Amino acid sequence: MENSGQSQTVRDRRPDALGHLKVLPDELICAILDCLTPRDVARLACVSSVMYILCNEEPLWMSLCLRKVNGQLEYRGSWKKTTLFLENLPLDSCREPLRFDGFSSFFLYRRLYRCHTTLDGFNFDDGNVERKKDLSLEEFHHEYDGKKPVLLTGLAESWPARSTWTIDQLLLKYGDTAFTISQRSPGKISMKFKDYVSYMNAQHDEDPLYIFDHKFGEAAPSLLMDYTVPYLFQEDFFDILDRDSRPPFRWLIIGPERSGASWHVDPALTSAWNTLLCGRKRWALYPPGRVPLGVTVHVNDEDGDVNIETPSSLQWWLDFYPLLADEDKPIELTQLPGETIFVPSGWWHCVLNLETTVAVTQNFVNSKNFEFVCFDMAPGYCHKGVCRAGLLALDEGCLETIKKNARNEKDNLTYTDLTRKEKRFKVIKSRENQNNEGTAHGASKNHNFWEQEFSYDMNFLAMFLDREKDHYTYPWSSGNCIGPREMREWLSKLWIGKPGMRELIWKGACLALNADKWLECVSEICTFYHLPYPTDYEKLPAGTGSNPVCVMADHVVKFYVEEGLESSIYGLGTELEFYSALCKVDSPLKNHIPDVFASGILYLENGSYKIVPWDGKEVPDAIQRCNLVPAKYIEDGFPFGVWGRKLFEYRKSGSSSTVSNSPVESPKIWPYIITKRCKGKIFAQTRDALSWEETLNLASFLGEQLQNLHSLPYPPFFPSAFLDTKQKIDTSFTNGIEDVSDKAAIPFEWQIFIRTLRQKKKDAASRLVKLGDPSLKTLIEKVDEYLPDDFVKLLCIFEDENSMKRVGKPCSWLHSDIMDDNIYMEPCGIRSCSNGNLDAALMENVVMDACDDGGEGKSWRPSYLLDFTDLSIGDPINDLIPIHLDVFRGNSRLLKQFFQSYKLPLVRGIAKHKSWGNGDKFGRLSYHAMCYCLLHDVNVDILSTIFGIWKELKTAKSWEEIEQTVWGELNDYQGFA
Description:
The protein is α+β, with helices and mostly antiparallel strands.
């Protein structure tokens, strides 16, 4: 009886159950399990008792499930059941889960606590954010806008949503409506509202699913009728963009207790308002530059992309908040139904739902934060880090350099002064991070330094902008809320649509586009050629193209900068060679291309601008010093003409997989061209005002001009002129390419074409991954199988009457970029602008004009083709891609109308010689066009356009299905048949 009453000691089963893995903490083992497939996790659960416990954790199965789902989700009572259902695996629901003693885990316990805790017992006070009612617009702008948060009452009292946006009423009206779910998963997840409500009532998740839908107005349009934008926030510069162009800006937010938004700064440093309709939210906020404890900011040093590593909002409140000293605690508040919080630009904020909540929020750009939004989308990375992490984003050496330069400036120096100078410092990025990312970590102490030094003020922040990085030549951050083309369109539309705010818009354009630099360059050119200087109206770079353009009263100046100096030199050289060819044969196409006034090279040397006129022949000294000159070229030819460009593109495509895409510092040299200005508008501006007959006329016009272009003789190719050590390609055509026949007569220019396609195939699929849509994964995996192994077959080789093999494809000049902003329209009667508006209308060349009614009531006809920057030589089918997808938007009737005027055969000799094709895929011109789409340098943009026009194709099972839908019309073209 000596041992009676004593419990038997339970042996720790962890060492035996985990074996060698016992040395790893539970958190790391769970992270490893999260990388496995659901089937592997299920198998691993059978290995041992501890693995059984770890592999049956609901948070693990939630992660596995969300990683797999893309589309609509239906929760089935637990995440394991839901995942097994998606995997089509059986689940023995009658079997009780196994239970084991001898194992404990503090990591699992803490996570279990977060999953099951309730928040109604937590003691939250009202917070320390000012509450205001009946705030005037003047007081808001003076006291709060761009300065500090404020909680506003009474703004939503008249909204229908104030009484109707409850879970029960929304369920009755929108139960079968699917809303987007916000969760850290690669797929786009949605749930019917009735399924989401069932999930909310059943779940015990640490970070519950959260409705965060920016397209709720499309899913349920009547919801937009239930609220209005409060009068304090109605100024929004993004309103000027079309709905398809503007970034996401409004969200319906519904979530259960414990859900919420983890620490973040709103995209592009926009401001936001958030109105709560039911439930309670707890907010925590920090001013700009003060990173919360537990949060890490990653800034990519190549494109400036910003990623925030942060715990869930519940985990932060439970695990990190208690560690904060009083002076380091955030600004806090509890938001009640009917209240609206304003969050200024750049402020960190974290939101925790204390109970089930329904809210609506919108982000906006106004006169207070416009400069910050432009600043955040400027190229580079240092300034992005400083905006969010303050001076923690800099190493000590960089900080001292910046301080030294700042002290040397005049006391009254502003950032607009800085934009007019050469860069006086360079941010030196720390290389401690193995992933080439700059990081800044939140800390609970030492914020006195931040309070004394950091300022969320543009005069201060502009010191961290790397002026050497130009908008037109450096990578665009994938984290920016809009693309570079949309950014240029936005500024152009603001410039035209808000003439009273041009001083502010100019400041933003200097930050985002280096507009002041390009104005300075244009002024130098105007001085050299005795042209009138740009007026205040004309000084902003115009249009949406990838090269800066200045449109003046009678002339247009275009600089070639896209993809760096070498590409730019070939761009101008090829264009000049093309214009020379037009004049030699007196092609009718020249009547529909703007006249060239001058061309040359502008460069900066010893602080002074110099200009050298250039007609494309010879080689200016400034270019020779850059070691870009071919060793051999025809003396009276064009050393940077189209064949040199083709070889350059071949070399570039061959190095794409091994050479970094990071931009290289280029000499300050800018090729330029000056053309006569056209009168009228670009097609993009008149598209919606054209009648169907006028649109058909446009299609006929394009057919005629493409016939002229594709009939134009192209310059002969002299292989010996380019075979120096830098530009030589292997002239043995059979090396690595299938031999057609000993009798095959394949011109050397087609050899370059075929070799370039082979190079592009190597990374075509990997580039398409950037589409970012998991539903396309299966299609992308089939790209290599769909594309030909033998690209020679795309040349349509046939036997002539002498049994000699010939190339059936015509080789011709290609424009390569005939899109809606490169077609010019001119008014031709019926009704025109009044005299008071005529000048404004004519002022517009490639930008949206400020006058009148957008062209309604006028008659328009096509007059000019613009922008021959992307000239090339190759298969004419390539020119159909931008015309059919962008100009015609996939309309087959317009494509037929085009062909009625085009008339040229897309394949020669086939009607007479039947030895080509033999009924296989190479006999379909639709297959050729689809291959060129997939191999294109911007294949992501092309496929995005295709899936935007034919939305049903996103569920296509094969590329053949897409091919027939998009390009099937080519197979019936009589010029081919």
